[in-house]
Amino acid sequence: NRIMLVPLIDQEGRPVDFATQKAVGFVPAAEPVLGHNEINYVLDCVQSGWISSQGSYVSAFENGFAKYVDCPNALSVSNGTVALQLALAALGVGPGDEVIVPDLTFAASINAVIHTGATPVLVDVLQDEMTLDVAAAEEAITPATRAIMPVHLYGQMCEMGQVTELAAQHELYVIEDAAEALGSRWRGQHAGTIGDAGTFSFFGNKLITTGEGGMVVFKEPEVAARARMLRDHGMDPSQRYWHLDVGFNFRMTNLQAAIGVAQLERIDDLLSAKHQLAAKYSERLSDLSNQLILPEAAPDTDHSFWCYVVRLKVQDSEIALKLIEFMKARDIDVRPVFFPLHRMPPYSDVRRVGRLTGSSGSSDLGIVLPSSPKLTDPQIAHVCDTLRAGLD
Amino acid sequence: NRIMLVPLIDQEGRPVDFATQKAVGFVPAAEPVLGHNEINYVLDCVQSGWISSQGSYVSAFENGFAKYVDCPNALSVSNGTVALQLALAALGVGPGDEVIVPDLTFAASINAVIHTGATPVLVDVLQDEMTLDVAAAEEAITPATRAIMPVHLYGQMCEMGQVTELAAQHELYVIEDAAEALGSRWRGQHAGTIGDAGTFSFFGNKLITTGEGGMVVFKEPEVAARARMLRDHGMDPSQRYWHLDVGFNFRMTNLQAAIGVAQLERIDDLLSAKHQLAAKYSERLSDLSNQLILPEAAPDTDHSFWCYVVRLKVQDSEIALKLIEFMKARDIDVRPVFFPLHRMPPYSDVRRVGRLTGSSGSSDLGIVLPSSPKLTDPQIAHVCDTLRAGLD
Ligand SMILES: Cc1ncc(COP(=O)(O)O)c(CN[C@H]2[C@H](O)[C@H](O)[C@@H](OP(=O)(O)OP(=O)(O)OC[C@H]3O[C@@H](n4cnc5c(=O)[nH]c(N)nc54)[C@H](O)[C@@H]3O)O[C@@H]2C)c1O
Ligand SMILES: Cc1ncc(COP(=O)(O)O)c(CN[C@H]2[C@H](O)[C@H](O)[C@@H](OP(=O)(O)OP(=O)(O)OC[C@H]3O[C@@H](n4cnc5c(=O)[nH]c(N)nc54)[C@H](O)[C@@H]3O)O[C@@H]2C)c1O
Predict the structure, then answer these.
(1) Residues in A touching B61 (Cβ below 8 Å)
(2) pLDDT (tens digit, 9 = 90+) per residue, B335-346?
(3) Considering only CA atoms, which of A108, A150, A106, A156 is closest in space to residue A128?
(4) Per DSSP, which regions of B155-305 are E strands?
């Protein structure tokens, strides 16, 4: 006799989210979609008494995720950053190894490399796609290079054919940072499942969320088994408190996983909401094509459009900054593109290859538009109108 | 019009837990106590849409915890292991620094030191208390020693007067691993609040739980501010995506914190349940005093009795192992004491000081009795009777 909520259903039979339709108001950068099953599963955890990383939702979420991305070896973790740390550690990347990282990414990508004790090397990105320039990566290879980390930024996938070819030639591990790219595909294969390991984030602004959370998938079941052991303090699964390796606590809770299971149930709707949003933005902004470069899926890929990122054609970073301020002042939470890593103090000594003009160009001229799947048509119109006004 | 549960109240006006009174059945090593406010606050998170590390329960939990332990600078994190990593990183402990760690502790203590790049040094524990032997620690000091990590094992507090004196003499940081010792005190001061930093765990078996979770408290507000920045990817709090340092993602979710707030409301009850359990065990086992050493609070301390640990008087580790098997076979989840770190492969090269006979003795002859605050009198009787039978 546990309490359960009956899901509200909309006219097409889809579960309804709690949020009521809002006036235009503040337009957030992102927000999660949570409904009755998120509540039901969380209630179930607390009422059953299983809220820690023990509990049946953890494996249910891992299995459901594995099925969705079509890769059997999925491990849930506390967030997308430790997912990268665990991937690197499980593959044995560490001190003395070089790892190639794109200069344009959220800092977690490079931080994870540094935390393993390995040496990151920065290479440029393609200015249009904002993803790893594989030719630049090739130049960066030395005898110490052990791995390459393509980052599928804002949902745009890296050219994985070139990446895997380069990796095969030089015997490098490929660790895909797919934190931002759940639902994206390269030639039908899910982001994160093409390399030796792939990682995902379920922070509150991601396609599906567990509040904080992450997942790592591995090509080889043996590596996944090692990761599982490392995730649980390096403990021997068959002898409690006997430690086989210097492990971590990177476990996801049953509560997080409960939300994750409910989110997986609605992932198709969330993805299609992103696609619709991107289509609406592209349509409404198409007349600005002499001022803006609008995002497009790279060849051979399906783009999740996790975030919709536009770029100014005029080469003037001041204008981008002013535009962001203009829109923020009008209650629209637009965001700058990440800063090139090489510009920031903690990474100033990191070896870099080439002139890194792609990452600078993408960063200086890019603007991330609000990309919540819950944006209403009036909100989308408001964002586009304000952007247009700001450009005048 | 959000859904809220009305707390069930027992005859003394205390909130009632979901679990119904059970027959003796399986006796777990530990289990959380969860009731209606745990549910209400979690419901509130999901219904408000704030489930990530953003959300008001995170600061409410930090503030409530700070008040409880009487130390203003408390930061919530994903678990007790990363709490230690964050404490070390915020204090600037890293490569080239030696950190003194007791040989008897859960491996997370030493793993955190290794992950920062610092060098752990193992010293013995006092066999009766199972806590750091401060005289041994003194012998371990070299010019490279930077910090000392007393671990308050099973709720028993280390002799903090000696620790702080030694640290002051040699200008060492004191990082208290109080993962197991919330509610314990030394001369009235809470475990974790005496050194430069103190860390706590809220795993499902801890005094209060958030599923997985942790807290770190700092003496100095400046160090806490640095930790806050490091916890959030090293990002500049005043400029988004601009990173000041190589940070982590160690954030706690609003969902975890919601449970934490509800747990803090019942912490006095949980602590008194631990005390009562310890008193009952001690009473029922008092006649075995020629075979068992029963736990006692060290001088000047209040012992939380997070776990009730007995030790065989006979110096025969085989008997302890057999006794554990005997009890497990009878559905009682007794646990061995942790293994001395120096015995396990990942730590075999770690420098150690002295003969480490205290840690070996504690580990080989100790047995951790089930310590759930929900154990019923019949269960307690069953545990004691079975222990007595096994000793025969
Ligand atoms: C390439 C790459 N690699 C690795 C990682 C690491 O993953 P992880 O963060 O460790 O899981 C990441 C993750 N990067 C994220 C990080 O998760 C980071 O924390 C986040 O930074 P942010 O942009 O500063 O995040 P924010 O402004 O705090 O939140 C973004 C929006 O989402 C909304 N939001 C977040 N949580 C919630 C919530 O619980 N409820 C509601 N309603 N809104 C929420 C906020 O209000 C904002 O509008 O966004 C970055 C892009 C990555 O992008
Ligand atoms: C000195 C010291 N320093 C640092 C740390 C690191 O903290 P953290 O684990 O990173 O938060 C720790 C934490 N050590 C813990 C770790 O948290 C570790 O994971 C845990 O190991 P374990 O003994 O193997 O844990 P277990 O057998 O999985 O769970 C213990 C009991 O609690 C019950 N339990 C756990 N979660 C739940 C739950 O959600 N519901 C119920 N009903 N029972 C639960 C289990 O059923 C068991 O009976 O216990 C160790 C003593 C520490 O002791």
Answers:
(1) none
(2) 999 999 999 999
(3) A156
(4) 173-177, 185-186, 189-190, 197-201, 214-218, 292-293, 301-302
